[in-house]
Amino acid sequence: MLAFDSSRYFRKLPIAGAKGWGDYASQSSVYHAYQVVHANGIPDENIIVFHPDDIAYNPNNPVPGTIIDRPNGTDVYHGVPKDYVGKEVNPNTFLEVLRGSEKLATNGKKVLNSGPDDHVFIYFLDHGAPDVILFQSEYLYAEELNTALKDMHRDQRYGKLVFYLEACESGSMFDKLLPNNINIYAISSSKPTQNSGKMFDDKKYKTMIGYNKKSNKIQTDPDIDMLKDWDVVDNREAPVYVLRNLIENSDDLVEKQKYTEELETILKGREYVDNVFNEYVNSIQHLMPNIATNAILHTKQELNNRHCYRQLVDTFHQNCFNLNQNPYVLSKLQIFVNICEQMLDSSDADIAVNRLIQHCDRNGYKNDQQVEPG
């Protein structure tokens, strides 16, 4: 999973940003990463773990206190440090840890107190979209992440740094933003416009319990041959995939009906979100006379106008649907990219933002509204 020079100091930061049973794989993969590093002799004082810590004793866990990351796997939860858990898992704390915050250290929290001879490995898993990754209740833009990494280089906080980012469209977090001369090797699980995947739809756990190990660039599993027997499922389609399998494999009619209703709720919620975006794009089509509505909705243009994009994303998050509560919405943020790439005049972008606010207010959308059960 990783390589390091044992003659130098080594620091590791595994971060699981997502919470909830549906995102079991995020935390189980981070726990597995911790076990690998720990077994290779890295002391806990050199490892900082971020995790919501809400699945080990979750009511849905058939084996309370135990977490696996592959079928019939061994427990990967035992011994995992609780350095940052619950609400502490947020973008600001993460960036402060990278910068070696004196305030956090004074409060007895671990920070990255590394120097120019240290090798640092960062492993992050959560949901993503163009230029953004989620934490459990907030999100982090690519510019802020890359600024923090450049600050680390300026302040000589590492000798070599490897950043492995597992999220949909995770390549967009580094593409054309990360300098190639600061001794950082960034690896993403997906290209800037590509989704990532999960594996192991476990009947006992009734969720996907692992991330896509077939594409994992740092794979060291001794049982890697068993991967060929498992499909990789698009991360964003995982909830639908799991429920369809539960419906197909259940012999209990009451249980089957329960899963069917859950699936219908998800599909109706997604259709609702689709219509929200369709109606909004139609309402501002006059600002984009040189491109068809269908192209805005379904193509994938490259993001350059970040200021406009961030305005639309933040406005939608604050006035329409909370991104953290509605991960499916992330699949629609490319539409904002496409819109912004047509906004040649800043005044047009301002109009687009104001129309979005009006669109959300007029239709009664609420920031705390959840259209797809977590």
UniProtKB/TrEMBL annotation:
It comes from the Eukaryota. GO terms for cellular component: vacuole. Residues 262-352 form the Legumain prodomain domain. InterPro entries: Legum_prodom (IPR048501), Legumain_prodom_sf (IPR046427), Peptidase_C13 (IPR001096). The active site is at residues 127, 168. One of its GO terms (biological process) is vacuolar protein processing. GO terms for molecular function: cysteine-type endopeptidase activity. Gene3D superfamilies: 1.10.132.130, 3.40.50.1460. Belongs to the peptidase C13 family. This is Legumain prodomain domain-containing protein. It comes from Oppiella nova.
